[in-house]
């Protein structure tokens, strides 16, 4: 299990290094996550021990929010000053996310009529 934990942190480190070396506008952990995903696709699956490490991370996910919560509390005055802008950004991004998700879902699922038959399955004759 230590090996897979090292793989996860190694991917994050590789993402940070790529971000700095190539001056990419994407956060290093996101690049690391893409690298990890590519590795799992190449491996064609998730090893059982790797899944156990991932489950352990998910079981303790709430602990990872403690630093973010502390940061919010430290900057409460600034958040108060920018409250309207933050609220507009949150509402706007939420609406955009819901809209894009709905459009993609609609495009990928195909339209269904009242009988549950796809419109492409109905013959004209």
From TrEMBL:
Membrane topology: Multi-pass membrane protein
Transmembrane segments: 26-46, 58-78, 84-105
Main localization of the protein described in the UniProt heading: membrane
Keywords linked to the UniProt accession: Cell membrane, Membrane, Transmembrane, Transmembrane helix
InterPro entries in the record: LrgA/CidA
Coiled-coil blocks: none
Superkingdom per UniProt: Bacteria
Pfam family, one: LrgA
Location(s), subcellular: Cell membrane
Name of the protein this chain belongs to: CidA/LrgA family protein
Organism lineage string: Bacteria, Pseudomonadati, Pseudomonadota, Alphaproteobacteria, Hyphomicrobiales
């Amino acid at each position: 299990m230590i090996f897979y934990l090292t793989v996860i942190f190694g991917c994050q480190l590789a993402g940070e290094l790529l971000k700095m070396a190539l001056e990419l506008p994407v956060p290093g952990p996101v690049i690391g996550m893409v690298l990890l995903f590519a590795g799992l696709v190449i491996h064609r699956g998730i090893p059982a021990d790797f899944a156990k490490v991932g489950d352990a991370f998910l079981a303790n996910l709430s602990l990872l929010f403690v630093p973010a919560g502390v940061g919010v509390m430290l900057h409460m005055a600034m958040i108060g000053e920018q409250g309207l802008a933050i609220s507009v950004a949150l509402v706007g991004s939420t609406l955009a996310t819901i809209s894009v998700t709905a459009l993609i879902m609609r495009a990928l699922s195909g339209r269904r009529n009242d009988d549950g038959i796809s419109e492409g399955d109905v013959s004209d004759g």
